[in-house]
């Protein structure tokens, strides 16, 4: 649900988003359950930038 919340936050004008990312969250030494997969980050950031530009 973090990507959805990040998109909503950017749409409302937030100036920053903090996200934990890891190449393999299931095997991360810490914060794995809270982390997004690194290979999904570029797409999410692209979407966030597009939302920001539209607002």
- Average per-residue pLDDT, rounded, comes to 96
Q: Could you tell me the radius of gyration in angstroms?
A: 12 Å
The parts where pLDDT drops under 50 for at least 5 residues are none
Task: Classify the secondary structure makeup into a structural class.
Answer: mainly alpha
What do these coordinates show?
With 55 residues, the chain is mainly alpha-helical. The chain has one domain (2-54). The chain contains two helices and two strands; from the N terminus they run H-E-E-H. It has helices at residues 2-11, 41-54; strands spanning 21-22, 36-37. The longest helix is centred in the last third of the chain and has 14 residues, at 41-54. It starts with a helix and ends with a helix.
